[in-house]
Amino acid sequence: MQISSSEPYDAIVVGSGPGGAAVARELARAGKRVLILEQGSAAPVTGKLGQMAAMAAVPGRGAFVHRDASLLVQGITAGGSSTVNFATAAAPPLPMFAAHGIDLAPALRELRAELPIGPLPDSLVGPMAARIMEAARSLGMDWQKLDKMIRPQICRSGCWRCVYGCPFGAKWTARDFVDEAIGHGATLLDGAKVLRVIVENGTATGVELVRGGVRERALAKVIVLAGGGIGSPRLLHHSGLMPGSASFFSDPVVAVMGSVPDIDGGAEVPMAAGMRLDEDGISLADMTLPKPMYQGFTAQVGRFDRLFAHSRTLSIMVKIRDEIGGSIGPRWVDKTLCAADRKKLKEGADTARSILKAAGARHIFKSWHFAAHPGGSVRIGAGVDSDLRTATHGLYVCDASAIPEAWGLPPTLTLLCLGKRLGSQLSADL
């Protein structure tokens, strides 16, 4: 499919993750001519390791190693990271956005009424998650089921493919909104790497991209960058619209693991339940991983004695709200932990250890930290205003890079709210 050159599009959306997909759907529903440009592939999801690795583990594209050897990953595919996430639907912290004059409550109500958001039925809570929940509650912790973006009537008990990409259609992803946008007339081009925003007389008028080795231009009245916490600041820099580096948050995670003798599992929906300590900036949840990922973690920390204990190993995710810092540059990404971040991870890991001990686990160890939520690099109140506008007329940013403060939460539902709000505003203005 070729880019239309007869007249400008009403809008070009760069990236098809939750923010971009929500904007594109709103605009297409309103009858606007929308072009969605996605750097990754829109091939159907297979739920296999090789495809997931191509989406999120290619060095310098979806995966980045920091100076402390920790790993940051992001999804480069249609649907963005929502395609390979754990499908957890954390509600946006409304007061945080209200402080910037943004009311996300109407969008949140509409999305909750429309999307498959809710806790899993007991039949889909696996034995490992149930064991961890029972142990946490025995210690007096407020361990509750988490809202998931999963269609329970399609979801399969004993399945572990959430993070590989659900091939059964049970997990909601931003691909659903992309498909709706296409149904309303939007055009999706995958394998399209945007090189820069075209600016004429202070106004964004289009983008330059390369697809299939061919350079092209696409013109539009409005440009919405939704390339993620790393992609959007880089694109702004390449366009001469932002300094050479940007600070950000990454929501670091460690997995704390321990083996029990009386469970033979390892295949269940991850993050079925957990708890948040918002004042401390720490979250915990069960996190049963696919066997190759588990073995990667054990080998990483030299616990080869646990390499083949996957089916008996309980795993708890510890995630923290890290301080904004580090840098995203034209060719690098670096976010080493500060002392406060390390303290939070230790506190969370100690809590996870106590839960695992209460569950009867032995041989307890933890992984190195990793992260998958880069954001805050084009923050509301600094890089964009409350309507997600940049200083360049006609240019907007709608992805995790616009989140205004340090985070520590799964961002999917928040980005859908921001995208729905922005799409409605643009529909009225165009």
UniProtKB/TrEMBL annotation:
Domain 4Fe-4S ferredoxin-type per the UniProt entry, residue ranges: 146-176
UniProt keyword annotations, A-Z: FAD, Flavoprotein, Oxidoreductase
Top-level taxon: Bacteria
One example GO MF annotation: oxidoreductase activity, acting on CH-OH group of donors
InterPro entries per the UniProt record, alphabetical: 4Fe4S_Fe-S-bd, FAD/NAD-bd_sf, GMC_OxRdtase_N, GMC_OxRtase_C
Family matches, as Gene3D superfamilies: FAD/NAD(P)-binding domain
Family designation: Belongs to the GMC oxidoreductase family.
Protein name: GMC family oxidoreductase
Species per Swiss-Prot/TrEMBL record: Massilia polaris
